[in-house]
Amino acid sequence: RFCKERSREMIRMKIFAFCIVIVSALTAASGLMGCNQHSSTLESVAVTPADQYMVKGTTQQFTAFGTFSNGMRLTWSQVVSWNSDNPAVATVSNTAGSNGLVTSVDYGTAIITAYDAANNISGTATVTVEDPTSITVMPTNPYMAVGATHQFAAIALFSGGTVTQVITTFAKWTAVSPGVATINDTSGVIGNGIVTAGAVPGTTDIQATDPISGATGTTTLTVTGTPMASIAISPIDPVISLITTT
Description:
The protein is of the alpha+beta class. The protein is 15% helix and 40% strand.
């Protein structure tokens, strides 16, 4: 009798195990069908900025975005292969960590392409290398307290009139009156253009110059020993809409 009961128990366990296998298989199949139903394909690749002017000798980071059939948009810079049709004017990096970094070499125009070989889809951007027509130094005519530091920015404007390029790290910086303020002038590094107000109040022009074309921008800095009177927050009394989803 014991043997018969043991045999029945083993049969029940085998049936139970078989059922688990069947259920697992059906679940996996259902999951695969769901994936197929919701899968999407790459439809396009876009490169930004799409139309960029650059000062000769500078770098500019370009980014590729992939748009899929389900509407999703992903950064695609590490997936695509980057190419310049005119490396004598501008080159582009394919090195991991700097994919899409463009370096302007000489005057002219180059087409930058981001190509997804797996899907045979590409996007392009146009690079024009020319001298800036003017340089704007920001902030405009600022005040700084004695001993304070602040990062200034140099922005190049081109003949197109609307396209600009930030050339802060590339520009040559000068404080006309170094006794009033000093400025970091180490081209090519982060922190180029940092101004430190001196110990004696006064005014000085802060200048940023494109070392190749000689185009120069100026802003007037006032160093003051007067304590801060107030702090203003903008915007004043803003209205924020509550967005709900259903």
